[in-house]
């Protein structure tokens, strides 16, 4: 009993971290596709028409506009993507939903708006200016590989966007969550503020999810939205 409890506590962080990543739906299939010598061989593995369809309408993983969600079609979630060097993501941003500042270490990211009014921010590297765009239907922007970017649906209606990334394994790093994982005294030094209360300041940082968080108070007040369960 005690041992069991101990094991649960020990492995909880790992299980928890795993839950925040795309789940590999069929490792065996991915392995066979990666080892296949030819396209012909891959066709003999992906024998059914259904093997060639990824359904963004499926309920799993989490799919909602409250506050929002990101759904990736990549080698992990859709094995037929193996070998094509791309990820396609569906972004659903409810009113005022935000994707917190993050970067993808292995992919440039093109985002096109289908509906809504979403503002984006992108910082490519030190000393370059921050690029901000407003994505209304039909408009697209570029987040270069490794650039820090963030977006918020500034409208009170849902925003639907499609994102294309040039890797099957883009990786994602949320800046604030990453920063808050280093030592408190180093964070204080980075802020140039020896009295910064790191624990208190960081206690409400939303978890790294595959979804989004609620955005600015200004938008929330304007649209009359209260924070529900994320
Ligand atoms: C989009 O929102 C911005 C404010 O964030 C506003 O200035 C602009 O007029 C809006 N565009 C449309 C087409 O609604």
UniProtKB/TrEMBL annotation:
Residues in Cupin type-1 domain copies: 54-199
Entry keywords, A to Z: Manganese, Metal-binding, Secreted, Signal
Keyword Nucleotide-binding: no
GO MF, any single term: manganese ion binding
Domain of life: Eukaryota
Family: Belongs to the germin family.
Protein name listed in UniProt: Cupin type-1 domain-containing protein
